[in-house]
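Hey, can you fold this one?
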Amino acid sequence: MTRIRIDISFKGTDYHGWQIQENAFTVQEELNRALSVILRENIETTGCGRTDTGVHARQFTAHFDCVNIIDDFDYLKFKLNTILSKNISVNDIFETYQGFHARFDAVKRTYKYFIHTSKDPFKNEYSTFVPYRLDLNRMNEVASLLTGYKDFTSFSKLHTDVTDNFCNVFEAEWTQTGDNYVFTISANRFLRNMVRAIVGTMLDIGRNKVSDFTGIIDAKDRSKAGVSAPPQGLFLWENLYRD
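Sure. Predicted structure:
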């Protein structure tokens, strides 16, 4: 039995996220099917996490075990990219150590959220149109507070299967280029819907609709935070693993 790591990118527009679900088309389902056909055995991948419907990934890492020997990983990558839809690309695939786990071995994950404030039909699948001015300085003031907190219950989807809502946020910052805004956040882990909930709340702050960001965090109550930002602006950008 050999453990394999695979790094992919995907456009999430047409998928109901990564994880297999009944009566829904997912990235994991398509990847499992392609691997099973090529390797001629039943392959079940384990991903680095979940993504919501419509969310994209620049780097999504998964692992799987296989019985058959893989002689040429470059050829396997080529075959997978031939079979998979145009919305998924295999960027790397290689043998890893037996204990590697795509989800639990990640030490740092980075998400980016893209916003444009001038109407542009060519950006709508990868960025969220926000038709009003944003106070970048104010949004960065509250973004800097995130590294000082551990409990992000106020930004977590309710009734999830995690045992706690604690995260170590390493970085959180907004940048602006013309009419385009990018929010970058890195942490050891993320809760379901966390980034979209944080972005939605910060957009309210950027419009001066909300002022007490610390009160929202301290409340540990999802109803106190803003509406989640739409999925199409969100990218899982990078996963880093221990050596």
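Helices lie at 27-39, 73-83, 136-143, 194-206, 213-219. Let me know if you want another pass with a different chain boundary.
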